[in-house]
Amino acid sequence: MDKILAVIFFGAAFGLFPIIIFYGGIFVNYLSYYEIKEYFNSFFMQNLNIYLYCGFGIFSGVAFIVNTNFLRFIYLFCSIIFCLTLIPDIGMNVGEKMFAKNARINVDGQAKPVKLIYKDNKKIYYKFNNNPKIQRLDIK
Predict the structure, then answer these.
(1) Angle subtended by helix axes 2-26 and 69-83, to nearest 10
(2) Lower CB count within 10 Å: N or C terminus of the chain?
(3) Are residues 54 and 12 in contact, defined by beta-carbon separation less than 8 angstroms?
(4) 103 vs 33, 84, 114, 121, 136, CA distance in Å?
(5) Are 61 and 117 members of one domain?
(6) What is the C-alpha radius of gyration for the chain, rounded to an integer number of angstroms?
(7) 107 and 91 within one domain
(8) What's the rounded Cα separation, in Å, for the pair 107 and 59?
(9) In a structure prediction context, what are the per-residue pLDDT tens digits for the chain, which is 140 residues long?
(10) Are 36 and 92 in contact (CB under 8 A)?
C-alpha cells in the first residue's frame, strides 16, 4: 500500500513538472509572439492533456519508486524532450502545429477565411491572410 501511495504522490509531482515546462515554452514562444494576452494558468488548464499527464505521472512515479536507473534515464530523456519547446523556433513550431489552422468564421455577419491562431472556450484569436494584425472574437 505504501508503494502505491508513493507512486501516486511522486507521479503527480514529477509528472507535472515537464508538462508545465512544455506548455510554458509554447506560451512564451507562440502566444507571446502573437501578443495574445492570456494568463498562463488558464492557458495551461484549458490545454492540459489529462491522458498525457496521467500516463506520464504513473510512469514518473514508478520510475522514482523502483530502483532502476534505466527508468530514471527515460524520465530524464522525456523531460529534456518536453523542455525543447523553450527553444524559440521549436516552441513556435509546436504551437503552430497544436493551435494554428485555416478556417472560416463569421465576422460581421459574413463567413470569412481566416487563420486561427488560438482558440479556447471563450474566445478566438485569428488573423486575415492579408493582414498580420491579430484580432479577438469573443464566443458566447
Answers:
(1) 20
(2) C
(3) no
(4) 21, 29, 6, 17, 15
(5) no
(6) 19
(7) no
(8) 45
(9) 888 888 888 899 899 999 999 999 999 999 999 988 888 888 999 999 999 999 999 999 999 888 789 999 999 999 999 999 999 999 999 999 999 999 988 877 888 889 999 998 888 899 988 888 898 888 87
(10) no
Q: How many residues does the chain have?
A: 140
Q: Which amino acid is at 96?
A: E
What grid cell was written down for 92?
Answer: 513556435
Cell 463567413 belongs to 111
Strands 110-119 and 101-107: antiparallel
Question: Looking at the 3D structure of the chain, how many domains does it have?
Answer: 2
Q: Same domain for 17 and 32? A: yes
Q: What is the DSSP string of 43-107?
A: HHHHH--HHHHHHHHHHHHHHHHS--HHHHHHHHHHHHHHHGGGSHHHHHHHHHHHH-EEEEEEE
Amino acid letter for position 33: Y
Q: Does one domain contain both 94 and 105?
A: no
Residue type, 13: A
